[in-house]
Amino acid sequence: MIDNGLTILLIFGLLWFWWDSRGVAERAIQAVRQRCDRVGVAFLNDTVGWKKIRLKRNSQGRMQFQRTYFFEFASDMAQRYQGEIVMLGRHVTKINLDVYRAE
Predict the structure, then answer these.
(1) Model pTM score
(2) Under a CB-based contact definition with an 8 Å cutoff, are residues 64 and 87 in contact?
(3) Residues forming beta bridges with residue 96, ordered by sequence position
(4) Whose C-alpha in 14, 23, 38, 90 is 20 to 30 A from the C-alpha of 64?
């Protein structure tokens, strides 16, 4: 009986983590799209890829997941460049773009 309860709890925990991760990835995509538009480069594939995840304290001292995603962009549509976005919880903490050739 306890095994069934633990299994159900584990399944719900995994489902919550997947659902939360998808929401954070969607927010990351929006933030990257805005940054690319602002600096005048093309956000390629309209997606981010998971790079790493860890626990980190936010400014209030609460533990949250810090997720790092990578993405690709182009300035002249001839060369692909990579960027990185770091999310703490659902908030953007940093967006880095590789050095790229300006048109």
Answers:
(1) 0.87
(2) no
(3) 84
(4) 38
Provide the sign of the torsion angle of the four alpha carbons 31, 35, 37, 38, taken in this order: positive
Question: What would you measure as the largest C-alpha separation in the chain, in angstroms?
Answer: 65
The amino acid present at 39, given as its one-letter code, is: V
pLDDT tens per residue, range 30-67: 999 999 999 999 999 999 999 999 999 999 999 999 99
All residues at 6 or more sequence positions from 63 whose CB lies less than 8 Å from its CB, including other chains: 55, 56, 57
- Site of tokens 């300035």: 75
Inter-residue long-range contacts of 97-101, CB under 8 Å, 24+ positions, other chains counted? 97/35, 97/39, 97/41, 97/73, 100/41, 100/73, 100/74, 100/75, 101/75, 101/76
Provide φ and ψ at 91, rounded to 5°: -110, 140
Helix (H, G, I), strand (E, B) or coil at 62: coil
C-alpha–C-alpha distance, residues 86 and 60, integer Å: 18
